[in-house]
Write a structure and sequence with these properties.
Elements: H1 8-29, E1 58-59, E2 62-63, E3 69-72, E4 75-78, H2 84-105
Antiparallel strand pairs: 1-2, 3-4
Length: about 110
């Protein structure tokens, strides 16, 4: 879901309406979303916006706490969409791989 508006109360209301539509569609299809496993990521391209408190939406009576980053299909997204979290994650995995190869080579 993507939406842009500055007033937090309106923004939270919008997100909760979207989540209710998703819940309604899941009910129609016989699917279920686990609110405890759900994650929310509020992105901004505004440097001051990253410091603002983000709204906490509710889904099926469960509060969905927003995260600073979110992994989706192997890509890590962060709040500013600058892929810093993805780069750090990739560097960390590569570093572990190099260290494992060094250990196997006896260095």
């Amino acid at each position: 879901m993507y939406w842009c508006q500055s007033e937090e109360r309106t923004r939270l209301s919008y997100w909760e309406k979207c989540l209710e539509r998703i819940k309604h569609q899941c009910d129609l299809d016989g699917d279920e979303i686990n609110g405890d496993k759900a994650a929310a990521l509020f992105c901004t391209l505004n440097n001051r916006g990253k410091q603002e408190d983000v709204p906490i939406p509710e889904y099926g009576g469960t509060l969905i706490n927003p995260d600073q980053s979110l992994r989706y299909l192997g890509v890590v997204f962060d709040r500013q969409l600058n892929f810093t979290a993805q780069i750090n994650s990739t560097l960390q995995r590569a570093s572990r791989g190099v260290n494992a190869m060094k250990a196997a080579a006896g260095r």
